[in-house]
Amino acid sequence: MLPALAASSLLLAACTGPESPEEVSRAFWQAVIEQDAGEANDYSTLVEDAGFDGYQRDWQGVELEWGRVVIDGQEATVDTVFSGLPERAEPLETTTYLVKKDGQWLVDYFRTGEALNSGPLWGDVMNQLEALGKDLKTELARHSDDLAREFEVLTEELRQQASEAGESFSNLVDEYGQMLRQHIDQLSESLREALKNNPNASVEDRQLLNEAVIRLETQSDALQDPDVESVTESTRVALATELQLGELGEEFSAYKAEWQQRLAEMEKQLAEYVDQLQNES
């Protein structure tokens, strides 16, 4: 009876797949060693198989050892040691970084890659976005004085009216939130397409696109039931992301023209929304 129960437990565990940070790390690195882009995608923050590059290393014959696991809220780290790396006599000690998304632990692909390569070889896109957010008016003004002004007015109007939200104001927030979500979903889909169609783009460009998709999809989820906070934050993220896409290489020229057109359309819709808010005052 007990052997049968144990066998059932093992079968159940196999069906549920890796769940803990260490289990996910093991599955992810096994996929990397086998150069299995699909599996690596499943266990990491990659949004497209085309984003997988195996960290530009030869993994044949490489062996792994696991060390300390630290879980801090929605983030985790797993000490990881690689032996048998080509052109390296000593084992390489590094860290596998994970984040928890929708209840599932995933390897933070690019942050882990930075640690693997002994330092931040590429910019931290999230830090860049945070810096951009702190000085968004200045950055937007470089592209459009009107857009910077409209975002400033939007923020102030929402702040003033949120405490007195009547039905008409709530309807406006909902209407704009749904429009914004559609815009974000279309942009996210376009970024996925650009990433998929340019697998040979630079690591920096693929990281920028991958992280942008994650940010946009997070904001899209937040806009399922839009409120003042989600509308304001999603507007900021969408604008900042679209401006940041201008940093991509020349192979994305056609996409950048499309994204610039989207930015112009969003500027128009934002201006119309602000006018409606002011008429409600």
Question: Can you describe this structure?
Answer:
It is a single chain. The protein has eleven helices and four strands. With 281 residues, it is of the alpha+beta class. The chain folds into two domains: 17-121, Roll (Nuclear Transport Factor 2, Chain: A); 127-280, no CATH class. Strands 1-2-3-4 form a four-stranded antiparallel β-sheet, with helices on both faces. The chain is elongated. The N and C termini lie far apart (73 Å). Keywords: Coiled coil. Residues 126-164 form a coiled coil.
Keywords:
11 helices; alpha+beta; 281 residues; Nuclear Transport Factor 2, Chain: A; 62% helix
Overall structural class, as computed from helix and strand content, comes to: alpha+beta
> What percentage of the residues does DSSP assign to strands (E)?
5-15%
Name the helix and strand elements from N-terminus to C-terminus, one letter apiece: HHHEEEEHHHHHHHH
Radius of gyration: 22 Å
Intertermini distance: 73 Å
What's the total count of β strands? 4
Determine the oligomeric state from the structure. Answer: single chain
- Stretches where pLDDT falls below 50 for ≥5 residues? 1-14, 119-141
DSSP summary: helix tally: 11
What share of the residues lie within helices? 55-70%
Placed side by side, the strands forming the largest sheet appear as 1-2-3-4
**Total domain units:** 2
Largest sheet geometry? 4 strands, antiparallel
| Anisotropy-based shape | elongated
Coiled coil: 126-164
Keywords: Coiled coil
